[in-house]
Amino acid sequence: MKRCTKLYPFQVKYLENARTILKRVPVEEETYLDIKPAREAFGTAYLAVVEAINAILIKNGVTRKQLSKSVNGYRTALRKYLEGDDTQVVKDTIKVAEKFIEKLGRYTLCSLRFASTH
To answer: Is residue 68 within a helix (H) or strand (E), and if so which, with residue range?
Structure first.
């Protein structure tokens, strides 16, 4: 039997906020010209992911006090509570991670400096 986990409204709201922030940032040649709101949007999207993970862990019996403060702690908790739980979630996560790493690989130190100076 497949279990369904829905995001809570505030996690969806974080993602909507990140998209709204990015819509206001000027872009030239796939580079955000104002780095501060772009970083804010990235941080907001990251927070949405962390809160989604927290919700799943809490649903699986972890108390809010037990939630990790480190990446390694989250990795350990996810392995414990979700290992092999849903093969499609694992495959989709790997695909997203690959796309993210691939996009990061396109940047050079010069392009990052350029983007951060505007």
So the answer is: none
pLDDT tens-digit map of 16-53 = 999 999 899 998 887 888 889 989 998 998 888 888 88
Contact 22, 38 (CB under 8 A): yes
Q: For the chain, how big is the Rg over CA atoms in Å?
A: 17
Question: DSSP characters for 50-94?
Answer: HHHHHHHHHHTT--GGGS-SSHHHHHHHHHHHHTTS-HHHHHHHH
pLDDT tens-digit map of 81-99: 776 656 777 677 777 777 7
Provide the 8-state DSSP code for 3. -
